[in-house]
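--- STAGE predict ---
source: upstream dedup step, 1 unique chain passed
mode: sequence only
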Amino acid sequence: MANIKSAKKRVLINERNRKKNMAIKSSVSTAIKNALTAIKKGEADQIEALISIAYSRIDKAVGKGVFHKNNGARKKSRLTEKFNKFKATQV
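--- STAGE serialize ---
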């Protein structure tokens, strides 16, 4: 543990930020998982809403600096790719 007062504060702030970042990452992965589960099950009425929620959470995470913008774009791209494959099989 640090001895200097400002270093002690930084330790506390870093821990607080780590917890926030973990919560945001968890909500993103949950949203993506929910969308992928709906795609697998073929629940066409729910898929678009779940993908929209996932996009929103990814964009918020990128905006807050939790993910790099390329990481967010990659996650959205992979989700869209799976959705488009699902739509192709439905036609």
